[in-house]
Amino acid sequence: MRISARSFCHAFIVWLAVANPAAALQSACSDDPRWQAPHDDGQVFYLQKSSNPNTVVYAMQFDDEGKLKRQKPMTAYWRRFAEHGQRMELRFLERILAFDIQYSVIDAAEPAYRANLVAYPAMKATVEKVDGGAYRAILPIGGQPALLDCIYIELRETDFIPKILHVDLVGRAVNGSEPVRQRLLPP
Q: Is residue 160 part of a domain?
């Protein structure tokens, strides 16, 4: 019996998720081993595109005393895995048109935020502390509340503006830790 490389990769990822959830998180967004998962301080989730392994990291910002920065608690930046993995700030157009995050305070005491990507304001997430003290984005994935690990965008390169073929939301169910995934297709 012959099995395709893609089927093998999917079966391997499912096996990793059962045998070692931390390893599954490392390759959650892409089957391609060149796409690394960042593990940055304050990381909430990350975004990857099929065009290259560079990754946008969404993270909480803390001051020197370890307290959440109230003026700008969340930030987005590149982790340049196609080079040496260095951090690079988003460029102006990337911030205002695509990858930056908009947020509003929904609970100043806890604190918790309502957040969305600039490019997709309809997809709202709640960003709050979860068990263990880390901040996570919580939103419906596959019809159930989930902790968002990553967003993967499959692109077809064109002359000027790449065409989005699909967007995958990848995470873990809030009630349990089973992996969840949802594919969004462009209109």
A: yes
Question: Does residue 4 lie within any of the structural domains?
Answer: no
**Structural domain containing residue 131:** 32-184
* CA-based R_g, the chain, Å: 17
Q: How many domains does the structure of the chain reveal? A: 1
Identity of residue 29: C
Contact 170, 181 (CB under 8 A): yes
In a domain, 118, yes or no: yes
Q: Is the pTM of this model over 0.85?
A: no
The identity of residue 33, as a single letter, is P
| 185: pLDDT strictly greater than 60 | yes
Q: What local confidence, expressed as pLDDT, does residue 78 receive? A: 98
- Residue 24 domain-assigned? no
**For the CA atoms of 83, 84, 85, 88, what is the dihedral angle to 10 degrees?**
-70
Nearest to 103 by CA among 87, 78, 121, 130: 121
φ, ψ of residue 111 in degrees (nearest 5): -85, 160
DSSP string, 14-30: HHHHHH-HHHHHHTSS-
| Total Cβ atoms within 10 A of residue 13 | 17
Q: What letter does residue 51 receive in the DSSP assignment? A: T
Residue 117 CA to its chain's centroid (Å): 11
